[in-house]
Amino acid sequence: MTSKQAASDAASKVISDTAKAEGGPAKGSASAQMQSEVTRARNTEQGGSGNLGDSSNKSAAGQVISDVAKAEGGTTKGSTSAKMQSELTKSQNVSTGVGSGGGNSAVDPATQSQMDKEANLAEAQDRVVPKMENDPEHVTKEDASLLRSRETRAHGITEKGGVAATAQHLVAENEKKGTV
Q1: CA distances from 134 to 126, 129, 130, 137, 164 (A)
Q2: CA torsion sign, 75 to 77 to 79 to 85?
Q3: pLDDT tens-place string over residues 93-150
Q4: Distances from the Cα of 133 to the Cαs of 10, 122, 146, 167, in angstroms?
Q5: Nearest in space to 50 (alpha carbons), one of 64, 30, 71, 31
Q6: pTM metric for this prediction
Q7: Using a CB cutoff of 8 Å and minimum separation of 24, what contacts does 84-92 make?
């Protein structure tokens, strides 16, 4: 997603939230004025008519925020323009991966946790799957347990026919043969 798309999406979200707070879009309402400004700015970016004045280097969303702030008599905490700026900044940070603390704070903790679980599963698969393919008679109970544990953590279950189930099946066969 480009920063222009992210800015446009952020502006659209704020307009939608404002319209909902107003009980729906109505002619002359703040949300209708914001939508008009967004449309005018988009038309200008696409070569249509519009007046960006001395701020032609601003993004469409930035111009809309500026216009809304002017209509409000300035940006104050909690104002529509302040909310729009906050949403724009968040969306730009997400699209560029910028965040505080040097990490990828654009990812919420639950998503990061799931990503870590998937990475742990992939690591276990990278370690055991080649053994399953090239030397199946030496797949151990520990190998199968590792895969089952990581798959259960990542997906909530051991998937029927999945890598962990296949490893468990190989272990059962190996125990019957006495190779492990």
Answers
A1: 13, 9, 6, 9, 16
A2: positive
A3: 666 665 544 454 567 898 889 999 999 999 999 999 999 999 999 999 999 999 999 9
A4: 48, 16, 17, 10
A5: 64
A6: 0.43
A7: 84/10, 84/11, 84/14, 84/34, 87/10, 87/11, 87/13, 87/14, 88/7, 88/10, 88/11, 88/61, 88/62, 90/10, 91/6, 91/7, 91/9, 91/10, 92/3, 92/6, 92/7, 92/10
Continuous H helices in 22-156: 30-45, 60-72, 80-96, 109-134, 141-155
**Amino acid at residue number 16:** S
